[in-house]
């Protein structure tokens, strides 16, 4: 409470001075105050949802409170696992948070400019838009007003499409952090330059899939599992969708607008998920004929050592949404694993959409008795 009152007093006390400075045509005190105030009062796009990843939230909080210039934070994890919700839960009520979307192939200078533009308030300020000078001015006043605290830029990176290159983030995040900005990279799979994670200046938080119990405990999914439990479908859905919360939210949305039985709606949803796996696999095998050998190796295994792939003249393509590289620890080789239980089922049934579909239907039939 004291911190909030102190911030309000600071903001009110400086507002008049900021207005006077704004009238001179320079960005400075007023923008520093509004930068702090907006995120503290409004929050992020996922602020209505609350993450249960208390360990990662604690880690991110600790890093934001202690990170120094020249360091940055990367939040990694599978698509839909809840990285953005975890970040927004952590940042709720914090001062000076801005968010930017960085598209693939964006050049380093453009990444920096996009972030600077958000720091100074963008085109809404009818002043000389000298990005570097105005950014430095806003940051000077921000650090002065708020006792050396850093504003926070959250970079959301887009997943790569075939034929595109990652955005040039490595140099950009270094330049921004040296200005006195906390940089948090919300990293989609296959979206980063490899050297972004090997500079020794990064702090990496990996957001893993949730356990079955954690998925069931999510407040926004209580109604979904009440319906699935009644139809005896909870276990098969958990078995096939794994620990990605967004998939269950999508299924919940489908069930709420259904015009059919719960069983039929769930069956169609699971088969669509399987079909998307098949489409990705067929596309990769068409573009990279040897990729079929990788899928064949996973027929009777849960994972493949990268060294074995290399010895066979194989490699994991990028981007690849159905297989991923996983680091199991400092004493273990990198391994290639399916990205979901549905992909694993597909591989174990000869990478055949028809055979895998039959297996899904049999699992549903067995579950319902």
Can you describe this structure in just a few lines?
The protein is an alpha/beta fold. The protein contains 16 helices and eight strands.
Structural account:
The protein is an alpha/beta fold. It is built from 16 helices and 8 strands. It has helices at residues 2-23, 29-42, 54-66, 83-91, 108-120, 131-145, 169-178, 212-217, 222-230, 234-241, 245-256, 262-287, 291-297, 306-311, 341-348, 353-368, and strands at 72-76, 97-102, 152-157, 182-187, 202-206, 304-305, 323-326, 335-338. The strands form 2 sheets. Strands 2-3-4-1-5 form a 5-stranded parallel sheet, sandwiched between helices. Strands 6-8-7 form a 3-stranded antiparallel sheet. Helix 7 (169-178) links the parallel strand 3 (152-157) and strand 4. Helix 3 packs across helix 4 and helix 5 crosses helix 6 (131-145). The longest helix has 26 residues, at 262-287. Mean pLDDT is 85; it is low at 16-25 and 124-128.
């Amino acid at each position: 409470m004291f911190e909030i009152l102190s911030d309000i007093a600071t903001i009110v006390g400086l507002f008049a001075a900021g207005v006077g400075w704004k009238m001179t045509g320079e960005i400075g005190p007023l923008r520093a105050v509004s930068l702090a105030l907006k995120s503290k009062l409004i929050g992020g796009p996922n602020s209505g949802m609350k993450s249960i990843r208390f360990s990662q939230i604690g880690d991110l909080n600790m890093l934001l409170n202690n990170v120094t210039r020249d360091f940055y934070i990367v939040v990694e994890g599978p698509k839909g696992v809840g990285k953005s919700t975890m970040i927004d839960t952590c940042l709720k009520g914090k001062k000076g948070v801005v968010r930017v979307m960085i598209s693939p192939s964006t050049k380093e200078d453009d990444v920096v400019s996009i972030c600077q533009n958000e720091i100074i308030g963008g085109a809404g300020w009818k002043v000389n838009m000298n990005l570097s000078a105005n950014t430095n001015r806003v940051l000077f006043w921000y650090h002065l007003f708020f006792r050396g605290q850093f504003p926070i830029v959250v970079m959301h990176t887009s997943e790569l499409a075939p034929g595109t290159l990652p955005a040039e983030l490595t140099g950009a995040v270094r330049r921004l952090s040296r200005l006195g900005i906390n940089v948090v990279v919300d990293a989609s799979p296959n979206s980063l330059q490899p050297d972004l994670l090997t500079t020794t200046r990064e702090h990496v938080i990996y957001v893993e899939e949730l356990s079955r119990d954690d998925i069931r405990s999510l407040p926004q999914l209580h109604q979904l599992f009440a319906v699935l439990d009644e139809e005896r479908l909870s276990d098969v859905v958990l078995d096939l969708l794994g620990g990605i919360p967004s998939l269950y939210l999508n299924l919940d949305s489908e069930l709420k607008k259904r015009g059919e039985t719960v069983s039929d709606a769930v069956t169609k949803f699971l088969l669509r998920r399987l079909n998307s796996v098949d489409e990705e696999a067929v596309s990769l095998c068409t573009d990279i004929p040897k990729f079929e050998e990788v899928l064949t190796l996973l027929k009777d295994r849960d994972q493949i050592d990268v060294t074995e792939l290399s010895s066979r003249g194989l490699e994991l393509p990028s981007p690849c949404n159905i297989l991923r590289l996983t680091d199991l620890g400092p004493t273990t080789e990198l391994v290639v694993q399916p990205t979901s239980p549905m992909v694993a089922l597909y591989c174990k049934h000869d990478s055949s959409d028809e055979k895998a579909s039959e297996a899904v239907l049999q699992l549903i039939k067995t579950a319902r008795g």
